[in-house]
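Lecture notes, unit on protein representations.

Consider one protein chain, 442 amino acids long.
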Amino acid sequence: MTAAKRPDPGARKGSTPAKASSRPDVRPAADAKPARVVPEKPPARGPLIAKLHKALRAQYKPVPTNVTRPLLDQVLFACCLENAPAAVAEKAFAKLLEGFFDLNEIRVTTVAELAESLGDLPDPDRAALSLRRALQSVFESTYNFSLEQARKHSLAHGLKTLEHLHGVSPFVIQHVASTALGGHFVPLDLGALTGLYLCGIITQAEYDSGRVPGLERTISKKAAAEFNSLLHQFGVECLQNLHGTTVRKIVQAVNPAVKDRFPKRGDALPAPAPPPPATTKEQQKVAEAARQSAEAHRPAGPQAAARPAGKTPLPPPGAGPKRPDGKGATGKPGPKPFVVKPNMGKPAATTTPAPPVTSPPAVSKPAAKPAAKTTDRPVAKARDEAGDKPREKGRDKDKKGAMKPTARPARPPAAKDRGPKRPASGGGGKSHARQLAKRKPR
């Protein structure tokens, strides 16, 4: 038998013993919940943006942007401008247009060859892949290399057109919208995000996501073009020389309280962290839709990853290289070639040319009826001499009433076997010309 529990002498009579796990101070360490992460609150950006603009104006000079390019050329230039100096991007873009015949040749060129022509850029592989994907998306959507239709509508329509281009980064969309479409945006590439993060203007979450909502409201549209150019130069400086004197001087002038954001000398700033994996059903649906869209717009060529089994459709039977026996690689006969057959029509029949027929003289007045039924007209005389029977009007009818063409009689063997001469036309010797002469003029 098991021993019964002894009552606690210190416990009050009639009271229920309290559980040790119900009190937070006696909860085991293994069951402790992780501390809730409070998102970092974004600072007041207005004064910091004003200080940054003043510090950048003291260090750099704004570079004017060429807004006379076509819209598609502006997109391609923005692909070269991302994370690269403006002068280097202009030189690389001009070299790209001179080295190829047209945009279609750039579209069908491999990424490795495009990267060789864009070797002056800091990251030529990324720029080449972005260029090729943009051209492929434009060609598949319009079968042409033009985006000028986006200028004819509103800014929202132009943004939607740019967002549908596969492989185009948010920096390219914002740069083209602010320069070619007349919108108010602040283009943010990796360099610009790094500069804003070091100055304490954006949070860690905004740096990881690459999106800074409400940034356009902190600067006027009139000063946006100058600020965008200065911020881009500062971002390129942050990527090329993070621990340089210029970057530290600007950061100290804007916000000296964020010294801890600088990495140790010799180390680079950590790259933006990828988003966490999808946990809810809605996030999984969004991730699956993004994956399917990326698979549908996967670039073609040797630089693209191989498709899994079942994604690539099989060619039709008989397609592919042919063997000497006329069959395909699978052993099945291929499509029959198209052969132009010669003209197999019947040869033209050779007939004896008839003697020339002269037209009858014009009849101005009705002629008197001849006493005898003779044919003095040259046409009738020529017919009689040739032995041709005059054609009858209409066609003969068979017993059932169907119309049959009148068959021309065979030519007699000799003129001496013919019977007596017949009048020139039927109807009692009345010729057609005489019947017309009897009619009254209209």
